[in-house]
TrEMBL record:
Pfam families: Cupin_8. It comes from Alkalimonas delamerensis. PANTHER family: HYPOXIA-INDUCIBLE FACTOR 1 ALPHA INHIBITOR-RELATED, HYPOXIA-INDUCIBLE FACTOR 1-ALPHA INHIBITOR. Residues 105-269 form the JmjC domain. It comes from the Bacteria. InterPro entries: Cupin_8 (IPR041667), JmjC_dom (IPR003347). This is Cupin-like domain-containing protein.
């Protein structure tokens, strides 16, 4: 896409049946060619659009889906409207049969994260990743469907395994530290549910977004065919383009922390609420506290073990106790 971008590192020889949790939890993204080429859905996709459409319909529960549609002028970009008063698409409730009949020449359509056990209840027995089933606590498994679309760069909390079932997808990834150079939009209002980059990757305006040039220097790009997969580590920024007349992506999300631990997003929200109004010198003091108590891995070695509390190992019981104390204080 850009001459500065590097290819995502390839991890060859791994399939959905053989990959290990250590590989899936890699802190770096990895491209997995042919990862799911043996899945029945992928084999159907390789036979053509009619075959994969029939496969989808056979597994579909019949419950209407929420889709996002936009005119051809949008170029499939899922984004805000011109004055940021709303979005450039319309949500519609439709059956899969209705959506599959929409031509990309007439409109763009996009179905976001769709819970597989609810809308495609017989899908998972035929398309699975044993390591995730055996080693994680109910990973969230979703399908993403549509014709040509562009989803702006965003970062997700969970670990992510994205598997292309049908069509082609291009992923552009950036490490978490590129956040300041991606011009991320509002936290509270986003067309994708997560804050997104305001840069149009198809034609980046470097006069308006000059630091994006630095982000591009750290970009990694990969294009996936049916059966290929991509490991996207937690909080890596990723821009996704669906390039074919019909695209199907299956993804698995999981967290490598206990289920009783709250989302770090809550900590960020509460920190912003608590600290943003402070004067600069007090913010600097609290930055030192966060560095010491949150990010320093060896900040409690001098404290007797039985007195470490939150500075020691966290258990489900202690986590629930702290949450209850926080709720009581926040509700005063």
């Amino acid at each position: 896409m850009w001459p500065e971008a590097q290819p995502v590192a390839t991890l060859s020889g791994q399939t959905a049946d053989s990959i290990s949790m250590a590989e899936l939890n890699s802190p770096q993204p990895h491209y997995l060619p042919g990862f799911a080429k043996h899945w029945p859905a992928v084999r159907a996709a390789c036979q053509g659009q009619v075959a994969i459409s029939d496969y989808l319909l056979r597994h579909y529960s019949g419950e209407p889906l929420t889709a996002y549609t936009s005119d051809v002028q949008s170029g499939g970009r899922v984004f805000y409207n011109a004055d940021f008063s709303g979005y450039n698409f319309q949500p519609v409730s439709a059956t899969l049969e209705q959506l599959l009949s929409i031509s990309g020449d007439a409109a763009h359509w996009y179905v976001g994260s769709t819970f597989v056990p609810r809308w495609f209840p017989q899908w998972l027995p035929e398309q699975s990743v044993p390591a995730l089933e055996q080693n994680t606590d109910n990973p969230l498994v979703s399908l993403w469907l549509g014709n040509q679309s562009r989803v702006a760069a965003h970062a997700d909390l969970p670990q992510n395994l994205a598997v292309v079932v049908a069509g082609r997808r291009r992923f552009t990834l950036f490490p978490p530290e590129q956040l300041p150079n991606l011009y991320i939009g509002p936290l509270d209002a986003s067309p994708a549910g997560r804050p997104i980059s305001l840069v149009d990757f198809a034609k980046p305006d470097l006069a308006q977004f000059p630091k994006f040039a630095e982000a591009m220097a750290h970009a990694q790009v990969v294009e996936l065919e049916p059966g290929d997969a991509l490991i996207i580590p937690s909080m890596w920024w990723h821009h996704v383009e669906a390039l074919s007349p019909l695209n199907v992506l299956m993804n698995f999300w999981w967290r490598d922390s206990p289920a009783y631990v709250p989302s770090p997003q809550l900590a960020l929200t509460l920190a912003m609420l608590s600290l943003n109004a402070l004067p600069a010198e007090q913010k600097a003091a609290w930055r030192a506290h966060f560095d010491h108590y949150v990010f320093d891995q060896d900040q409690a070695g001098h404290i007797p073990e039985h007195l470490r509390g939150l500075q020691g190992p966290l258990t489900e019981t202690s986590a629930r106790q702290v949450r209850a104390e926080l709720l009581n204080k926040l509700n005063r």
